[in-house]
Amino acid sequence: MQRIILDTDPGVDDALAIALALNSSGLKVEAITTVNGNVGVDYCTRNLSLILSAMGNVSVPIVAEGESQPLSVSIVNASHVHGSDGLGGVTQLRDANGNQCYLDMLLPSVTTGAVDVVLELVTRYPGQVVLLCIGPLTNIAKAVLKCPIGMKKTKGIVLMGGAFEVYGNVTLSAEFNVYADPHAAQIVFDSGIPITIVPLDVTHQVLLNAREFEKLCVRHGGQWGKFLSDCTKVCFEFHRYHEGLDGFYLHDPVAVGYLEYPGFFDTVPAYVQVEINDGLTRGRTVADLRADRIDGPEPNAQVCVGINTSQFLDYFLDCIFASA
Ligand code: BDR
Ligand code: CA
């Protein structure tokens, strides 16, 4: 089984990705680390707790809270997409007796210091740990800055982020995870660690249909079915209202899918750089993805450019409803 550290900013699609990773038979989640992103890192850690609780009190060996702000830019978040609590408002839901619907389970092993947890695990299992990053890259960049040699023991990084031949989703130019901490992204791309990028170019090929998903949640029932239905509503509404879509894109789950089933994807090697300066194109990921390119700098990443959408969705829906 592939050992992974899941670095996340939960987040509605992060919640789906966390469940997918924990239910994927080929992945062994050694730790989950949180980072400032969709909402503040304290909310992200609380949300993680709530997700594990809703899945049926699933336990993870290590849960660590990470960085609360980007390296150099001011904080941006995405609560307009994910709800003010980051989880579609589920923390405010009450039952008929006025009790909270979703009580977060205690996480006895929560540590602060995601950066040290990452360094400790990649050193304990040299060449065996993949970092699956589905939020801004602040924790990972800090680990690289702190101990570049230690981080070379990482087997690889699979990250959801970037927009190459498509528009961004936070500005016309940039995707959220890279925009939120462009300096961190550039440090990670320069790290020499083998990197696979899962950008909007592929995640925009995978839409979770709102009506079909709601039907499946109702059919599944129980606490997990209700949680999935409750936490996705705000996100579905946002995409219907602002983008005219009957669903939302499965950004973070697609990155999990790459690790479990790389054969579903087409990739090209490329030298990727990030626009770190403020302005119209801040956070843009820039690379030459042409297959017939014959010169240029050595690639620093594999970029996913295509996906078998129906195979991915079959895997996603099978796994996501595997919890009780
Ligand atoms: C990314 O931004 C966040 O809002 C999502 O959780 C995902 O990681 C998509 O651009
Ligand atoms: Ca995310």
Description:
- The structure is a single chain.
- With 324 residues, the chain is of the alpha/beta class.
- Helices cover 39% and strands 18% of the residues.
- It has a single domain (2-320), classed as Ribonucleoside hydrolase-like (Inosine-uridine Nucleoside N-ribohydrolase, Chain A, Alpha-Beta Complex), CATH 3.90.245.
- It has 13 helices and 13 strands.
- The strands form three sheets. It has a nine-stranded mixed β-sheet with strand order 4-3-2-1-5-6-7-13-10, sandwiched between helices.
- Helix 2 links the parallel strand 2 and strand 3.
- The two termini are 23 Å apart.
- The model has no long low-confidence stretch (mean pLDDT 95).
- The structure holds beta-D-ribofuranose and calcium ion (CA).
- Residues 8-9, 11, 14, 37-38, 134-135, 252 line the site of calcium ion.
List the helices and strands and how they pair.
Blueprint: E1 2-8, H1 12-23, E2 27-34, H2 41-54, E3 62-65, H3 79-82, E4 110-112, H4 114-124, E5 129-133, H5 138-146, H6 148-151, E6 156-160, H7 176-180, H8 182-189, E7 195-198, H9 200-203, E8 207-209, H10 210-220, H11 222-243, E9 247-249, H12 251-260, E10 265-270, E11 273-274, E12 285-286, E13 301-307, H13 309-320
Parallel strand pairs: 1-2, 1-5, 2-3, 3-4, 5-6, 6-7, 7-13
Antiparallel strand pairs: 8-9, 10-13, 11-12
Helix pairs in contact: 1-12, 4-5, 5-8, 10-11
